[in-house]
Structures are given as C-alpha cells and as structure tokens.
C-alpha cells in the first residue's frame, strides 16, 4: 500500500494534486540544503509541515502561510542542486500554494492510501 498526499488548489480537473508521500517528505531535505540558515529560520514551521506530511491525516494551511510556502517551494524547485523529480513536486506544490493564497482560501493536505 502506497500513501499519497492530496492537496487542494491543484492543477487537475478537480482542483487537486496527488503526490507520493515520500516525495513530499523528501522536499524538507532539499529545503534545508538550498536555503541559507538565515533564510530557513523563519520558514521552519513550513519545513516541518513537509517533514511531517501525512502524520496528521488532514492539514489545513491558512492562506497567509500559503504565500511564503509557495515562495519556499519555488526556490527549492529552481535550485540547481534539486533533482528533476523533486523539483517537479516542489513546483506543483508551490503553484497550488500560490493559487490558495491568491484566492484567500486555506490550502489543505489530505493523506490517502492506495493499493
């Protein structure tokens, strides 16, 4: 059984994106690696969301936190040391976070299990 993370404000027809849970959690290491300590410190709660993705069942990120999360994920996606597959996941998550922030709506993450 594989666990996935379904996010609101995604790019599919239903306004959702589905990512492998491990791929989302791995982004925390990339975020720590590509950001300086000073840039990373105020984003610590957001990096923690990446690390603990899927442990809370459903996570709701307020719109005001989705905007900086989008910036963080865009930085991770565009960094030269980020491999293509994690960069794609970071870009898709960043785009969804930006849409949630622009619409002033909370961004939700829901864990699902597929066989």
Strand content: 15-25%
Radius of gyration: 13 Å
Largest sheet: 4 strands, antiparallel
Helix content: 40-55%
The total of helices stands at 5
What is the general shape?
globular
Order of helices and strands: EEHHHEHHE
Neighbour order of strands in the largest sheet: 2-1-4-3
Q: How many strands in all?
A: 4
What average pLDDT do the residues reach? 85
- Uncertain regions spanning at least 5 consecutive residues: none
Q: Report how far the terminal alpha carbons are from each other.
A: 4 Å
Kindly name the structural category. alpha+beta
Fold and architecture overview:
The protein has 5 helices and 4 strands, in the order E-E-H-H-H-E-H-H-E. The chain has helices spanning 21-34, 37-40, 44-51, 63-78, 84-103, and strands at 2-8, 16-20, 58-61, 107-114. The chain has a 4-stranded antiparallel beta sheet with strand order 2-1-4-3. The mean pLDDT is 85.
């Amino acid at each position: 059984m594989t666990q996935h993370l379904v996010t609101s404000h995604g790019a599919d027809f239903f306004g959702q994106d589905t990512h492998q849970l491990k791929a989302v959690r791995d982004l925390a290491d990339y975020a720590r690696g590509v950001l300086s300590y000073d840039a990373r410190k105020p984003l610590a709660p957001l990096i923690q969301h990446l690390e603990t993705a899927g442990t809370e069942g459903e996570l709701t990120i307020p719109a005001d936190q989705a905007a900086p999360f989008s910036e963080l994920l865009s930085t991770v996606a565009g960094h030269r040391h980020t491999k293509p597959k994690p960069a794609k996941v970071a870009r898709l998550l960043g785009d969804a976070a930006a849409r949630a922030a622009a619409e002033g709506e909370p961004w939700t993450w829901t864990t699902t299990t597929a066989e």
